[in-house]
Amino acid sequence: MTSHRRTNLYFQEKGLSCYETHYLAETWASVDLRTQLQTEGVNWCWASRQTRPLGPAEPRRDLPPDRELTPLNAENTDQLIADMLQLNEDGYARELTLLGLDAGEANKVDSFTMLRVTLDNFSDSAQGPLKLAVYQFDDSPTYVFFPSEPHPVVDNLLRTWDLTPMTAGLTKLAYRKLRRTAFERVKNNILRLAFPNDPQSQILKCVP
């Protein structure tokens, strides 16, 4: 995983937009993420998996190879950061997703079917309980998907991660240029990552 401080904003007027960043893991490790993610009005959950054997010098060796969708709380924030920072033998990170939902709506992702509906609503119209979705392949930058329409809680959270249209070195591009990493393409990857043992996950068409 590279640490080059480069950020792209893939924007469209309606629907979803996306920040592509190479340094979110380092940002999370250096700030009080526990406090940031206790944002009023948002509940969080995450999932991740180790895609290849760990490198010999990797210190974070006690993480589960597959972490199914897990509610985030004050006690396990350090595990999220460890998941984000763990590197395999090729120097790449874990595949990972972090989902931010309206408070009281965490049950909308309790099962494969319910998560699929929630992701479809977010993808099709940027509507529903999902307000922010973070996703990374093991060998990719981190993609932060959010509604293009202003949302005070989401906008403030992105600002604390230094993800704004004014971010130094930011390049603004059309959302369509995301191509294979647009949310509508990677939502099946998120489903499989969240519920790897569900039989429906085995037949999903995912971005390789």
Describe what this molecule looks like in 3D.
The chain has 208 residues and is an alpha+beta fold. It has one domain (7-203). It has 6 helices and 8 strands; from the N terminus they run ββααββαβαββαβα. The protein has an 8-stranded mixed beta sheet with strand order 4-3-5-6-7-2-1-8, with helices on both faces. A hairpin with a 5-residue loop joins strand 6 and strand 7 (142-147). Helix 4 packs antiparallel against helix 6. The longest helix is centred in the middle third of the chain and has 14 residues, at 112-125. The chain starts with 6 loop residues before the first strand and ends in a 14-residue tail after the last helix. The mean pLDDT is 91.
Q: Concise description?
A:
With 208 residues, the protein is α+β, with helices and mostly antiparallel strands. It has one domain.
Terminal-residue CA separation: 17 Å
Kindly state the number of beta strands: 8
> Helical segment tally?
6
Number of domains: 1
Average pLDDT: 91
Radius of gyration using CA atoms only: 16 Å
Q: Tell me the major beta sheet.
A: 8 strands, mixed
Task: State the shape.
Answer: globular
Secondary structure class reads: alpha+beta
Question: Which stretches are low in confidence, meaning pLDDT under 50 for 5 or more residues running?
Answer: none
- How much helical structure, as a percent, in the residues? 25-40%
User: If strands are numbered along the chain, what order do they take across the biggest sheet?
Assistant: 4-3-5-6-7-2-1-8
SSE order, one letter for each helix or strand = EEHHEEHEHEEHEH
Percentage beta strand: 15-25%
